[in-house]
Specification:
It contains eleven helices and no strands. With about 190 residues, the protein is an all-alpha fold. The longest helix is centred in the C-terminal third of the chain and has 19 residues. The termini are far apart.
Protein backbone atom coordinates (compact mmCIF):
# COMPACT_ATOMS: atom_id res chain seq x y z
CA UNK A 1 0.00 0.00 0.00
CA UNK A 2 1.39 3.41 -0.93
CA UNK A 3 1.77 6.28 1.48
CA UNK A 4 -0.75 8.35 -0.49
CA UNK A 5 -3.43 5.66 -0.36
CA UNK A 6 -2.82 5.16 3.37
CA UNK A 7 -3.14 8.92 3.92
CA UNK A 8 -6.32 8.96 1.80
CA UNK A 9 -7.80 6.13 3.89
CA UNK A 10 -7.08 8.04 7.09
CA UNK A 11 -8.75 11.17 5.70
CA UNK A 12 -11.75 9.06 4.65
CA UNK A 13 -12.14 7.82 8.23
CA UNK A 14 -11.48 11.16 9.93
CA UNK A 15 -13.87 13.05 7.62
CA UNK A 16 -16.50 10.28 7.75
CA UNK A 17 -16.79 10.10 3.96
CA UNK A 18 -19.53 7.91 2.51
CA UNK A 19 -18.89 4.99 0.17
CA UNK A 20 -19.69 7.18 -2.86
CA UNK A 21 -17.38 9.98 -1.69
CA UNK A 22 -14.56 7.50 -1.04
CA UNK A 23 -14.90 6.07 -4.54
CA UNK A 24 -14.77 9.52 -6.13
CA UNK A 25 -11.77 10.50 -3.98
CA UNK A 26 -10.00 7.35 -5.11
CA UNK A 27 -10.85 7.93 -8.78
CA UNK A 28 -9.59 11.53 -8.58
CA UNK A 29 -6.52 10.94 -6.42
CA UNK A 30 -3.10 12.50 -6.95
CA UNK A 31 -1.65 9.10 -7.85
CA UNK A 32 0.17 9.12 -11.22
CA UNK A 33 -2.19 6.54 -12.75
CA UNK A 34 -5.80 6.67 -13.79
CA UNK A 35 -8.78 4.99 -12.11
CA UNK A 36 -9.75 1.48 -13.21
CA UNK A 37 -12.76 1.24 -15.51
CA UNK A 38 -14.57 -0.91 -12.92
CA UNK A 39 -14.40 2.01 -10.46
CA UNK A 40 -15.69 4.42 -13.12
CA UNK A 41 -18.63 2.08 -13.78
CA UNK A 42 -19.43 1.83 -10.06
CA UNK A 43 -19.45 5.62 -9.73
CA UNK A 44 -21.62 5.95 -12.85
CA UNK A 45 -24.12 3.52 -11.30
CA UNK A 46 -24.14 5.57 -8.10
CA UNK A 47 -25.29 8.66 -10.02
CA UNK A 48 -28.70 7.01 -10.51
CA UNK A 49 -29.29 7.18 -6.75
CA UNK A 50 -30.37 10.66 -5.59
CA UNK A 51 -28.37 10.62 -2.35
CA UNK A 52 -25.23 9.13 -3.91
CA UNK A 53 -25.52 11.51 -6.88
CA UNK A 54 -25.28 14.50 -4.54
CA UNK A 55 -22.27 12.99 -2.77
CA UNK A 56 -20.48 12.11 -6.02
CA UNK A 57 -20.99 15.54 -7.55
CA UNK A 58 -20.05 17.31 -4.30
CA UNK A 59 -16.59 15.72 -4.31
CA UNK A 60 -16.15 16.32 -8.05
CA UNK A 61 -16.89 20.05 -7.68
CA UNK A 62 -14.41 20.23 -4.77
CA UNK A 63 -11.74 18.49 -6.86
CA UNK A 64 -12.32 20.88 -9.76
CA UNK A 65 -11.45 23.77 -7.46
CA UNK A 66 -8.02 22.36 -6.61
CA UNK A 67 -4.87 23.95 -8.00
CA UNK A 68 -1.10 23.82 -8.02
CA UNK A 69 0.52 20.51 -7.17
CA UNK A 70 -2.96 18.94 -6.96
CA UNK A 71 -3.44 19.37 -10.71
CA UNK A 72 -4.16 15.62 -11.00
CA UNK A 73 -7.26 16.07 -8.82
CA UNK A 74 -8.56 18.54 -11.39
CA UNK A 75 -7.58 16.50 -14.44
CA UNK A 76 -9.00 13.26 -13.06
CA UNK A 77 -12.20 15.02 -11.95
CA UNK A 78 -12.67 16.24 -15.53
CA UNK A 79 -11.95 12.73 -16.82
CA UNK A 80 -14.48 11.28 -14.37
CA UNK A 81 -17.04 13.95 -15.35
CA UNK A 82 -16.53 13.06 -19.01
CA UNK A 83 -17.26 9.42 -18.20
CA UNK A 84 -20.27 10.24 -16.01
CA UNK A 85 -21.76 12.61 -18.59
CA UNK A 86 -21.69 9.78 -21.10
CA UNK A 87 -22.44 6.77 -18.86
CA UNK A 88 -24.10 8.07 -15.70
CA UNK A 89 -27.46 9.62 -14.93
CA UNK A 90 -28.65 12.43 -17.19
CA UNK A 91 -28.64 14.58 -14.07
CA UNK A 92 -24.84 14.72 -14.35
CA UNK A 93 -24.95 16.53 -17.68
CA UNK A 94 -27.82 18.73 -16.47
CA UNK A 95 -25.83 19.84 -13.43
CA UNK A 96 -22.71 20.37 -15.54
CA UNK A 97 -24.67 22.55 -17.96
CA UNK A 98 -25.99 24.58 -15.03
CA UNK A 99 -22.42 25.01 -13.72
CA UNK A 100 -20.61 25.15 -17.06
CA UNK A 101 -18.73 28.27 -15.98
CA UNK A 102 -16.82 26.17 -13.39
CA UNK A 103 -15.59 23.91 -16.18
CA UNK A 104 -15.00 26.81 -18.57
CA UNK A 105 -12.70 28.62 -16.16
CA UNK A 106 -10.37 25.61 -16.27
CA UNK A 107 -9.47 26.56 -19.85
CA UNK A 108 -7.02 28.95 -18.16
CA UNK A 109 -5.61 26.41 -15.68
CA UNK A 110 -1.86 26.83 -15.12
CA UNK A 111 0.67 24.64 -13.37
CA UNK A 112 4.33 24.21 -14.24
CA UNK A 113 6.02 21.46 -12.20
CA UNK A 114 9.58 21.49 -10.81
CA UNK A 115 10.98 20.07 -14.04
CA UNK A 116 9.38 22.89 -16.05
CA UNK A 117 6.64 20.67 -17.51
CA UNK A 118 3.31 22.36 -18.25
CA UNK A 119 0.99 20.01 -16.34
CA UNK A 120 -1.95 22.37 -16.86
CA UNK A 121 -2.18 21.63 -20.58
CA UNK A 122 -4.15 18.40 -20.05
CA UNK A 123 -6.61 20.21 -17.78
CA UNK A 124 -7.07 23.02 -20.32
CA UNK A 125 -7.68 20.57 -23.18
CA UNK A 126 -10.05 18.35 -21.19
CA UNK A 127 -12.07 21.37 -20.08
CA UNK A 128 -12.41 22.62 -23.68
CA UNK A 129 -13.57 19.15 -24.80
CA UNK A 130 -16.14 18.92 -22.01
CA UNK A 131 -17.55 22.39 -22.66
CA UNK A 132 -17.90 21.58 -26.38
CA UNK A 133 -19.67 18.30 -25.54
CA UNK A 134 -22.05 19.95 -23.07
CA UNK A 135 -23.00 22.62 -25.61
CA UNK A 136 -23.76 20.12 -28.40
CA UNK A 137 -26.96 18.31 -27.41
CA UNK A 138 -26.98 16.08 -30.49
CA UNK A 139 -23.39 14.92 -29.95
CA UNK A 140 -24.11 14.39 -26.25
CA UNK A 141 -27.07 12.17 -27.14
CA UNK A 142 -24.88 10.15 -29.55
CA UNK A 143 -22.08 9.78 -26.99
CA UNK A 144 -24.53 8.55 -24.34
CA UNK A 145 -26.02 6.06 -26.79
CA UNK A 146 -22.57 4.79 -27.77
CA UNK A 147 -21.52 4.47 -24.11
CA UNK A 148 -24.71 2.53 -23.37
CA UNK A 149 -24.00 0.10 -26.25
CA UNK A 150 -20.38 -0.31 -25.16
CA UNK A 151 -21.41 -1.04 -21.60
CA UNK A 152 -23.94 -3.64 -22.73
CA UNK A 153 -21.22 -5.32 -24.78
CA UNK A 154 -18.70 -5.24 -21.91
CA UNK A 155 -21.03 -6.33 -19.12
CA UNK A 156 -23.14 -8.66 -21.25
CA UNK A 157 -26.40 -7.18 -19.98
CA UNK A 158 -29.10 -5.54 -22.03
CA UNK A 159 -30.92 -4.04 -19.08
CA UNK A 160 -28.41 -1.32 -18.22
CA UNK A 161 -29.86 1.36 -15.99
CA UNK A 162 -31.57 4.26 -17.70
CA UNK A 163 -32.63 7.62 -16.40
CA UNK A 164 -35.80 7.30 -14.40
CA UNK A 165 -35.38 3.64 -13.49
CA UNK A 166 -35.06 2.55 -9.89
CA UNK A 167 -31.61 3.27 -8.43
CA UNK A 168 -29.54 0.55 -6.80
CA UNK A 169 -29.70 0.41 -3.00
CA UNK A 170 -27.27 2.84 -1.43
CA UNK A 171 -26.56 2.99 2.30
CA UNK A 172 -25.27 6.58 2.28
CA UNK A 173 -23.64 7.94 5.40
CA UNK A 174 -23.41 5.47 8.26
CA UNK A 175 -25.06 7.16 11.24
CA UNK A 176 -25.21 4.32 13.70
CA UNK A 177 -28.98 4.87 13.96
CA UNK A 178 -31.16 1.76 13.76
CA UNK A 179 -33.37 1.46 10.69
CA UNK A 180 -37.17 1.65 10.75
CA UNK A 181 -37.23 -2.10 10.02
CA UNK A 182 -35.01 -2.82 13.03
CA UNK A 183 -37.19 -0.72 15.35
CA UNK A 184 -40.68 -1.66 14.19
CA UNK A 185 -40.23 -4.76 12.08
CA UNK A 186 -40.44 -5.21 8.34
CA UNK A 187 -44.25 -4.81 8.16
CA UNK A 188 -44.11 -1.20 9.45
CA UNK A 189 -41.76 -0.05 6.69
CA UNK A 190 -44.13 -1.27 4.00
Amino acid sequence: MTTSSLRRQMKNIVNNYTDAEIKVREATSNDPWGPPSSLLMEIADLTFNVVAFTEVMGIIWKRLNDHGKNWRHVYKALTLLDYLIKSGSERVSQQCKENIYAIQTLRDFQYIDREGQDQGMGVREKSKQLVALLRDDERLKQERSQAHKTRERVTGTSSAMSYGSLPPPYPGRQTGQPSVEALYGEEHSR
